[in-house]
Amino acid sequence: MVDLPWIVFSKPREPLVLSTSPIALSGKDVPNEVYRSLDAVGDDDKWWEAVELQKLILAHNNIEVLREDLRNLAQLTILNVSHNKLTELPSAFGELPMLKSLDVSFNSIQQLPEEIGSATSLVKFDCSNNQLKELPSSLGRCLCLSEFKASNNSMTSFPEDMVNCSKLTKLDVEGNKLTVLSENLIASWTMLMELNASKNLLSSIPENIGSLSHLIRLDLHQNRISAVPPSIMGCGSLAEFYMGNNTLATLPAELGALSHLGTLDLHSNQLKEYPVEACKLRLSVLDLSNNSLTGLPPELGNMTTLRKLLLTGNPLRTLRSSLVSGTTQALLKYLRSRLPQSEEAEATTTTKDDVISMAARLSITSKELSLEGMDLSVVPAKVWESGEMIKVDLSRNSIQELPVELSSCTSLQTLILSRNKFKDWPGSIFTSLPNLLCLKLDSNPLKQIPSDGFQAVPGLQVLDLSGNAASLPENPAFSSLLHLQELYLRQMQLHEVPSEVLSLRNLRILDLSRNSLRSVPVGFKNLTSLTELDLSDNNISALPPELDEPSFWSAVNANYCPYLTRVRTCIFVNDCMVVGLS
């Protein structure tokens, strides 16, 4: 009998989940017990309360075989066998009617079984980074398929049967050998929001590309495409368009109709001019580097939304090199000066609402929302269209409380709230953010930090509370942050180091600068992972002799401690002064 300490059994009547660590499976096969989940019911358990396995995570092991016994897991909804050594998949996939998510990426699979088409509940399928030369036509029977990834294989075409996959919203086939995107397929995939067919052998864009009215991100870079069809104007939702490394010689005037476009990448083509009509766009990023441009239309100066304009590698004869290598704003100003006075007056004026709308659109694909420095007191509801964001930056505003919509962002990993006007601890929102890794609340007028304030975010790795008006509670719950690696308590009016900080064994960076510390606890020697310790601008007069070790001093910045007088050494490490005592 194989010992399976890594099986996680849930409470009765709740979904049963099995997950392994990368070293959990010492063999090349999946143990028999996995395929017989109901056998795990003990003598004292009620068999009618047992729940069959629904989620099976076997990623990052050395599995070479998935047996036909997989059919025994009829209630399986999620299967992840990515990053293994599989060369084929069993036909038993056709007997998993409840399967919704399948990840077989990063293996050595050469062919998918036709039976995969019988997994008709499939919503997400990732077969990236294998050795596939074709897809089974039966995949067209997966009518619920919404997200399909098959990047980095050797496919030359799609089966026409996939016209039936009309619910596709995300398609990633980067890094294959596709020579054409069928117009029949494009006509059926009208719900697509993201299409990545970069790094293929495509020579053209389908003429009916404009039927993808929901498309937000289109990536076709590094192909052999010689023209963008005028029908592109039909992609009215397009926010990101990547066409770098192709053979474009001209651009259609219809490109200027893409009113939501924020990023346009045209680098490394053969463009000789940028169309005047496209100067109406409200772009944030425009990459025209490595083309054959000899000049730019003065109308481009009206694109005041532009934050990044790349022009290197062009024979620009009508522009001074100092303008080309200078700031984007200086170049735009120069171009506006070349316009007739009446046209210059019509320059696009970007409103705050325009910038917010653009940030909201870009967040749908990037999963990151940045509203830094927008002088907001309230976050507009429209920015929360995407509930899958992993990073939100609301710093440098006047926000006093977090919007309730943020609680729907359960995948959020980074939340930056620096330099706002938060007075109350936003703990109620934190309880809805189980995946939060980085929290920055520095420079806020917080009145109180509750002692249990961090219990809702035990996975934090970075925490910044610097410059807050509130004092830390007598027993701050730092001890619950077992994974904390960076802690910033700069300018917190601290008179002593919080004792619970000394229990943070994974701490790498600790900033206690600009406080009123008079002593340093011996317990610092237990922070063996510490690489940076900032004690500058304090009232420390001496350090315990127990800390007088090279490994400790290499991490310390004790500059500007006016009472630290018994200096033994003063050296520079990585441009930062390190002070030692006798």
TrEMBL record:
Residue ranges of domain Disease resistance R13L4/SHOC-2-like LRR in the record: 68-194
Q: Which InterPro entries match?
A: Leu-rich_rpt, Leu-rich_rpt_typical-subtyp, LRR_dom_sf, LRR_domain-containing, LRR_R13L4/SHOC2-like
One Gene Ontology cellular component = cytoplasm
**Keyword entries, A-Z:** Leucine-rich repeat, Repeat
Transmembrane regions: none
Q: What is this protein called?
A: Disease resistance R13L4/SHOC-2-like LRR domain-containing protein
Q: To which species is this protein native? A: Ficus carica
